[in-house]
Amino acid sequence: MLDFSELESKEVEVVGLPLDKLRWNTERHVALKLERFQGGAWKALNLPPTNFWRARLRRLELFGVAEGVYSLPLEADKRYAQTKEEMLYLVREGILDQER
Description:
alpha+beta; 31% helix; 100 residues; 3 helices; 3-stranded antiparallel β-sheet
């Protein structure tokens, strides 16, 4: 088990390990699964290519893995409010699980 739930870092990226072998802090980190971003609800968002979520999904594709855990922007980050708003939509649509 890789536990980074107490890690306080601006950027966290953990890929190549099964999510059930990881422990993260849901206040600071988000788990992404490529397969859940294939449907219409995700496409309906029509986000720009530089968007937080698209950038992380591209990283998963780049590494050739299906899932990973990433840090969320810090509250002081200009992307924070937009990312959190999009995150609520993704949770509501069943694309993201906010819980472990």
